[in-house]
Amino acid sequence: MSASTAGRVPDGLLSGEMSVEEGVEGDVEQGAEQHAEQHAEQPPHQSAAPEAMEEAPEDPPVPPPPFPTALATRLYISHFLSTWNSRVFEFAAVLFLAAVFPDTLLPMSVYAVVRGVAAMVFAEAVGACIDRVDRLVAVRASILGQRLAVAVSCGVFWAMLAKATASTATRGGVNDAAPPAANLTTASSTTANALLLPGSLLDAFFSALTGTSATSSVSSTAGTAPTPTATPSTPVASGLFAVAVIAACVEKLGSILNLVAVERDWVVVLTEGNAPARRRVSARMRRIDLFCKLVGPLTISLVAAASTRAALWATLGMSTASLVAEYFCIAVVYRRVPALRRRPAAWDDSAVAPRTTTTTFWHATKAVARRLLPFASLPLYVRHPAFLPSFALALLYLTVLSFSGQMVTFLLATGYTPLSVGLARTASTVCELSATWIAPRLMGRLGVVRGGIWSLSWQALWLTAGTAVFWGLPSAASPDGRVGGTAGATALAVGVALSRIGLWGYDLCAQSLVQDEVADAHRGAFSTAEAAFQNLFEVLAYATTILWARPDQFRWPVVVSAAAVYTAAALYTAFVRRRRGHLFHSPLPPAQRWLDKAFSGRRGVDV
């Protein structure tokens, strides 16, 4: 029997073209030979026919590779330590400045504004570092930069506290270890340039929850305007303050470098091909951020209630002690994932010879020197398909509608107690944390793009309700600048707290879009350009309360904040229509979906 003859029977059987009659009418001898050959080719005890095996369903697709729990744990530990120390230092610096300059907010404002401007100016340099430097080198540089900046800042604050204590001792002697003021009833002239008297643990607790130091309430409660007599006036004081500001800028840049590199680059590589795992990891890391945002300031303020210097040493101690663990946890993740060790695309057209660590740092230094302003990455950022969701997220930072210093100051001016503000901020944080569980499920059910529009709609809905009630209820200003009535402020606070679910839900959706769509070689440049806009809008938010500084004028910053949310929603709506072709599913049958055609003009594709 020839090979061609032997091959005809299986083909006929597989295609179903050979009928029973054709088999009976065929050549008997040929059928016998085929039968014998078929049994000879089959292994023993194999009763299934070849055609049955061929007709078996195809193997299911290979599931995405799991993200190892051990690696995830080390990644979370490193991220927690970085975020914890950054949040603790950020709030501790406010307490230290309030202790050194108790009767003026000017140094604190300068400190915060310069820090934000530095984040904008050097965003391009940070992005170049992420895209061009070895991943482990970049993250380790951010860790060391943060720790050195905190150490320098603590040394400077210790010297400033010592100088303030010496100045106070010549005036009548105040405890040099005293924390920021907790006496909210009097503001005597003896404390004009001194550390204020110790307060209770309860006062420090509510100071942490409200996001303000107790010193900021002294003059407002007393009904008198603060006198800026404690500003740095001598060359030594001015020099120390300048060093503290520079160190704060370095710490801020290190924090941005670490955050962007890990959340926008490392997580994408670690979860390559596993989108559900990527969303879970991103949600858990955001959960860590929010936890540190609440508990970190609370912890350091409880220490500061006993002694400002104790808080200073605690800040330095936590930062130093966590260095080794954070340094080696991130190194273990790097070494166990070969994909992280691949050379970034920006280096592919360079010399073939491998670079040493020294050479890598040298090239990084030259890249930083050439890129001091975030202009080079703007064309890439603006023209990228993910620009609209990213810019919409940055625009949401132009807001006073969060339980930070501006809104807290307004609530206290309306008659809220620190206890009430603390409870409101806690409720808001609970809503924010709930978004880290809600958003991944929303994205899994509706998709990332639709999840984003739902989240922004939720945020806009609750802010609209709170703002409408706030404007509708009377809130006349009293002669001393305090706003009468808390009903409108309460409605605004409730609306803000519930809107945070949508805010952080959209944050996770936008982050997922950026992670999925930005190329490996451009993740750093794109994400740091976004961070630059975030800092710009945050500074503009502070400008609104400088322009409308009185509590009875707070309604205008509220309007600006609400307008920013509506603008962000409009930008993202344009992105959704461009991506999907329509904004919502029509309930009509396909033949009658004239509404879809009127809104889109083409059939959309669900994402």
Care to describe what's here?
It is a single chain. This protein has helices at residues 3-15, 20-25, 28-41, 50-54, 69-100, 106-121, 123-132, 135-169, 201-210, 218-222, 235-270, 275-306, 308-336, 357-370, 378-383, 387-395, 405-413, 418-446, 448-472, 487-517, 523-547, 555-580, 594-600. The protein has 607 residues and is an all-alpha fold. The protein folds into 3 domains: 3-41, no CATH class; 70-344 and 360-376, Up-down Bundle (Growth Hormone, Chain: A), CATH 1.20.1250; 391-578, MFS general substrate transporter like domains (Growth Hormone, Chain: A). The longest helix is centred in the middle third of the chain and has 36 residues, at 235-270. The chain is globular. It starts with a helix and ends in a 7-residue tail after the last helix.
Structural class: mainly alpha
Query: What percent of the residues sit in helical stretches (DSSP H or I)?
Result: 55-70%
- Helix-strand string: HHHHHHHHHHHHHHHHHHHHHHH
Q: Over all CA atoms, what is the radius of gyration?
A: 31 Å
Residue-averaged pLDDT, rounded?
Answer: 73
The shape is globular
Uncertain runs are 1-56, 173-230, 344-355, 476-484, 599-607
Kindly estimate the percentage of residues that lie in beta strands according to DSSP. under 5%
How many helices does DSSP assign? Answer: 23
The N- to C-terminal Cα distance equals: 57 Å
Q: In CATH's first tier, which class of the largest domain applies?
A: Mainly Alpha
Q: How many individual β-strands?
A: 0
**CATH architectural label of the largest domain:** Up-down Bundle
